[in-house]
FAD-dependent oxidoreductase
Amino acid sequence: MPERLVVIGGDAAGMSAASQARRRRKPADLEIVAFERGHFTSYSACGIPYWIGGLVADRDALIARSPETFRAEHDIDVRLRHEVIGIDLDRREVLVRNVDTGTESREWFDQLMYAAGATPRKPPWARVDARGIFGVQTLDDGTALRAWLDADPGPRHAVVVGGGYIGVEMAEAMIQRDLTVTLVEQGDQPMSTVDPDMGVLVRDSMCQLGIDIRTGCTVTGLTVRDGRLSAVETTDGTLPADLVVVSTGVRPNSRLAADAGLPIGVTGGIRVDLQMRVLGADRVWAAGDCVETVHRLTGQPVHVPLGTHANKQGRVAGLNIGGGYATFPGVIGTAVTRVCDLEVARTGLLEREAEDAGYQYVSTRIESTNRAGYFPGAKSMTVKLIAERRSGQLLGAQIVGRSEAAKRIDALAVALWNYMTVDEMAGLDLGYAPPYAPVWDPVLIAARKAVDAIHAG
Amino acid sequence: MPERLVVIGGDAAGMSAASQARRRRKPADLEIVAFERGHFTSYSACGIPYWIGGLVADRDALIARSPETFRAEHDIDVRLRHEVIGIDLDRREVLVRNVDTGTESREWFDQLMYAAGATPRKPPWARVDARGIFGVQTLDDGTALRAWLDADPGPRHAVVVGGGYIGVEMAEAMIQRDLTVTLVEQGDQPMSTVDPDMGVLVRDSMCQLGIDIRTGCTVTGLTVRDGRLSAVETTDGTLPADLVVVSTGVRPNSRLAADAGLPIGVTGGIRVDLQMRVLGADRVWAAGDCVETVHRLTGQPVHVPLGTHANKQGRVAGLNIGGGYATFPGVIGTAVTRVCDLEVARTGLLEREAEDAGYQYVSTRIESTNRAGYFPGAKSMTVKLIAERRSGQLLGAQIVGRSEAAKRIDALAVALWNYMTVDEMAGLDLGYAPPYAPVWDPVLIAARKAVDAIHAG
């Protein structure tokens, strides 16, 4: 009889794990059953704002692989609308509820892959039963929001609460749908995922697009009329609204794991070893937005819910379940996004994060261009570096630019990953040709400026 | 009395050195005189093809700083049309000829900066005195070519000899000027700066543009009528032509240095230490296309004439002349270019270079896209990796793509610089968002494929 792998969660981490395990172990050796409470598998959650905004025309384009594909091509039994509601590690069973019928059943496993993702941090005011209130965590969320937008008459006034990546991307999507948009952010700056001096560039660009930005502003409640949202109450006054997007962050969806006695870390994520095996558990694995990982610079546990990590971690877990050997080396906080006509990127630590980690640092900022200044299409870009005060080790980098800017973060990310100093970086052999860079690439100019600051300090 | 720095050559390396030295030492402490035999200083030689082709409208846009700027803002005495024709290290004098008047004079120095650049490898058949024969090494060359193109009636049939970066860029420029273009290349493939399996992609793209490519073809002579070029004779027959571009490579312009007894390496370039000091010489420095440097992977001396190295080396020399401390760490062979609608990039070693260096390797190739597949503007890209057979250390990478492809080489270059293995690279935390990458960046997919090949081998 084959071993049986049960996968909890049919998105990036879970299905990557399932696919990798299947590549190495045939159905006669390993049966794979995946339970997903939603309607979809393996979709690009990061793509939802672009579908909402209309840039991506077809929802199905966001779905990498359907349950049918998994079943037919990989012999993976994916059961949609099935939610795992309990784990019994001693009996090696999960309790599963059919979301549509309410029927519950027990399913046995030898190996368990926990990939339940993240749960929106829903503020108390958002726990209201009314139409017009949306999250954007899942493709089901996105589908509901899109239906609301496409209704006739559709909504006209949107309020987006929370100015992180998703909030900013959703604000832009709403503008593209011709709604008036107000972005409500508790902090001093939207795009708090970069330092304030870089965030202000993003803010300017959002304002130019017509987004009304309210910073230092908190939502206090919602006004509902006839079961529909009619306004958002804030510390900055009443904002009429027939649509609110709640993008106030997520937390690891680790409750079931905790209830089963699996170890939960300080971030709320499940604790795993390098192979993505749950610490101290027998043949139980976890990956994706529900786990915590380690930041390679600070050595601290962090929770970084990003599709790219979920895919990598899922692959690692699946390789190991399949009898191979792979490890996940941790993260350094790289992220990129597009806001209006701006490209925004970061890697490593922000200033406050560097401080919290105990680093003393210098930070420098330069202006340059994506191409040779004389080349058609040359656009400006700002590069900020944060380097350890004494050694000059790169601790963080941020880029805001208009074109061909964001992915320059990768060279900086690899430098940071390898603990390079800004001195060493100034000598790097990067690609140069007029269509792609000034003769000194912005990355090199930034490194030179940082070198000067280190030696002056 | 101030010390006196004499600079031989007023382009990237020489003027970077002069500027850096000036930043640290005021005129009362250091007098700086630079001799340049041409009409221009500090221009982008790499930009010449784009000006010839019409993409860059204004020649002066290629000039970063004019002699007037150097004089007025930096107190650097730049003397154009002055060629240094001899160096006397014992008397610490150079012999200088005014190119226009023929007058010769002696100029003393304390410190000497040798930055005479490179000289075209002119084949015997090109040493003919006729109109219609052009190099593209200097802005003076470019100016002459442009005048020939702009004449009325202008030329109609161009032959470009040599299929390296410059040859390929010039072929494209000639097409943009509505000439018929034949590219003659001795080897099997134009763009021999990448492996043949990648070069074939470039060849296809050039053919589609209408460039007639003759590989395995050698020029045997030129036909001149009334002092004008009328045809190029090749092993492949007679090619009617009223314009020939000779882009058959360059060699270090180190003759004067050799005559003065300075050490010349196996590549023909001047030998320097880490600070760009000429080996064994007293207060004599060299930088740019006239020196040889070290390849960080093979440990072998190499001659890599590229503006980006010239700028870096010149800066290092200037900092040291100025009393600071900087070193040039060597190169790893990174280069990017645009050919028609293709972006072409490389870093590290090609297959034959890896073999010559004594490595055993595996090479792998993957296809991916620059953006999420569903995102508007997603275009294909091919990434090839070469990794050491046993350790998996990255030895080389090549990319050919249609958009947002070439500069991905930088992440690979930094990985290679840091001696990463493809195993380590598969875990890198690179930027992901749908407008910029699939959830697995092509760089990561390439690393995964290489990992599989290493472990299979």
